[in-house]
Design brief:
Radius of gyration: 16 Å
Organism: Hemiprocne comata
Distance between the termini: 36 Å
Order of helices and strands: HHHHHH
Number of strands: 0
Pfam families: HEAT_MROH2B_1st (PF23221)
Strand content: under 5%
Protein name: MROH1 protein
Structural class: mainly alpha
Helix content: over 70%
């Protein structure tokens, strides 16, 4: 997974494809490996983090019927946390665009998802003066 930091888009695509391919035969193992990698590399630049997150999303979508309930629950929570972290990282440079996207998730009369609120709060903290 370290190759996701390669600047060549073809290498990045090959990593994504390899993760998805391996996820076809061992979805839980790949999801757990991706999760562990993201935890160990919490400073991984967001474009590279997105490659792994996209692969995780594909593996989950393609294998949802095969996943153990506890694995699915853990992966969804971790995936949402990682996605929130990516938005916060992007927001350090493009705060207006990220805030626009996060605020669009607030709907009148509907309680927003936990990670929407957490992302909003973390954006505020990371961009405080």
């Amino acid at each position: 997974m370290d190759a996701t930091t390669d600047k060549d888009p073809l290498v990045q695509e090959q990593i994504y494809n390899a993760l998805c391919y391996l996820g076809e035969s061992e979805p839980e193992e790949i999801l757990n490996s991706c999760d562990e990698y993201l935890r160990q590399h919490d400073k991984l630049a967001y474009p590279h983090r997105v490659i792994i997150l996209n692969a995780m999303e594909t593996v989950v979508k393609d294998n949802i019927a095969l996943l153990d309930k506890s694995t699915a629950k853990e992966v969804i929570r971790d995936w949402q946390q990682a996605a929130s972290n990516v938005l916060v990282a992007v927001g350090q440079r493009f705060i207006n665009k990220v805030m626009e996207e996060v605020l669009s998730k607030f709907q009148p009369g509907i309680l927003p998802h936990y990670f929407v609120l957490q992302t909003f709060a973390n954006l505020s903290v990371s961009n405080g003066e």
